[in-house]
Amino acid sequence: MKHRSLQEPTFLILTALAAGPQHGYGIIGDVERISDGRVRLRAGTLYAALDRLTSDGLAAIDREDVVEGRLRRYYRLTDPGASRLAAEAEHLRHNAETATARLRLAGGPA
Amino acid sequence: MNPLEHRLRRWLRLYPIDQREEILGVLLATAGPGRERPSPRDAADLVGGAVRVRLNREIRSLSSPIWRDAFAVLSLVTTLLLFTGVIDLLRDYNGHYSLVQPPPAPVWPMWAPWIIVAVLSVRGLRRTAAGLAWAAALSQLPWLAVSAGGSAFEAPFVYDHLFWFGLAVIAAAALSVSDGLRRALPLLGRWRVAALAIGVGGFAYVVTGIGQRPPRGSVVALNLTEQAPLDPRWLFTLAPTVLIIAAVVRLRTAYGRRAAAVLVPSLAPLLCSLTLWLAPPDAPAVVIVDFRLIGPVAVVLLIGATAVSHVRERRRSTS
């Protein structure tokens, strides 16, 4: 089945979860690191994306902790989520290689 | 509780209850020191996120019993309102005086089947009722085309008549995706059904003008292009409409809120034409008339999405 391309924040959230289960605050920090500080997720954007990813079966709740009286929920990448992330990474790699090759042919900055 | 937490908790009421504590923890952890309120960007992001979460969950719940019940209530109201066409046919046309323009077109096949539809639906013959309802709704199309003489959607009268066509399509669609009147009647209970019947009766009364004499001895119908500003007669139509909505809307129940969300846009053409009566005579009536059909179209699209959701659910359960 053909899927629509993932939006960058969604792609980065799945990438963050590929390293292991993480809670919301951890994901925000990890996404900032992965994107070299370019993407800084806000809570509303993060939880809207996590809600969609869990209902689509691409991510799932791993466990819940209570730290200093506050609920902390950990999310993990599911098998369909890992497959989807791999397919998207491959798609992006292919596009990037094509763009680089064409720029080389044109004598561009690549 | 510090001022920031207090304010954040208020914003987080926009979110489903299961997400609030978790998001609060993240917001407090990412907030800068000494901050007493969320920044405008954070607040905008919270609102945008809440809208997306709510929409996502609502779309996924379209095939749930809650939405089925909401559509059952919608099917009851719209089917009863379509009885107006039958009542209109049964009375003498001489001196006909309607406060709602246009009244239902005097064509039997468009309206008579709705009585049978209601009986079938009450008896639980869901598919037969829905099939007949679709036939009755679509029977309006030839009339719309013929009476407009080939320019169906340009003639003002035919365009206004789309309110009745829209009502019939919504009724047929709602009967197709719910258990119809059989479910709606016990769901509302005796008193609410009685209030609804009075509201629909009142609506039929102003539409068909039963027992009314035209004011000042002449047949004067309110015309969308020649508005009488602050005309008190709009109250006669507003009162039954409000009673109909109040009778079926139960905002404390999940299905009741959803019933309100689909019922109000379904009646939007009527409500909009009421507001038109208050508009100055040189108001751009055509623009508002165009706009008022968005409500019924949105409801039909939502019911279409629900039907798709039902089919997907069924395929998933059989595979």
Concise summary:
The complex is a heterodimer of chains A (110) and B (319). By secondary structure, chain A is of the alpha+beta class. Chain A is built from four helices and three strands, in the order H-E-H-H-E-E-H.
Question: Could you characterize what this model shows?
Answer:
The complex is a heterodimer of chains A (110) and B (319). Chain A is of the alpha+beta class. In chain A, 56% of the residues lie in helices and 17% in strands. Chain A contains 4 helices and 3 strands; from the N terminus they run H-E-H-H-E-E-H. Chain B has 2 domains: 3-58; 66-318, no CATH class. The model of chain B is unreliable at 211-231 (pLDDT under 50). Chain B is mostly helical. Helices cover 71% and strands 0% of the residues of chain B. Chain B is built from 15 helices and no strands. The A-B interface holds A 24-25, 28, 42-48, 51-52, 55, 70-73 and B 15, 19, 21-30, 41-42, 45-50, 52-53, 56-57, 60.
Distance between the termini of chain A: 34 Å
Specify the helix fraction band of chain B: over 70%
Q: Largest interface, counted with CB-CB under 8 A?
A: A-B, 17 and 25 residues
In total, how many beta strands of chain B? 0
The CATH architecture name of chain A reads Orthogonal Bundle
Assign the CATH class of chain A: Mainly Alpha
Q: How many separate structural domains of chain A?
A: 1
Low-pLDDT windows of residues of chain A:
none
Radius of gyration over C-alpha positions of chain B, nearest whole angstrom = 23 Å
Mean pLDDT rating of chain A: 90
Strand neighbour order, sheet with most strands of chain A: 1-3-2
How many separate domains make up the residues of chain B? 2
The low-confidence runs of chain B, each spanning 5 or more residues with pLDDT under 50, are 211-231
- The helix content of chain A is 55-70%
The CA-CA distance between the termini of chain B, in Å, is 51 Å
Radius of gyration of chain A: 16 Å
Q: Strand fraction band of chain A?
A: 15-25%
Largest sheet of chain B: none
CATH superfamily of chain A: Winged helix-like DNA-binding domain superfamily/Winged helix DNA-binding domain
Structural class of chain B: mainly alpha
Could you give the order of the helices and strands of chain A? HEHHEEH
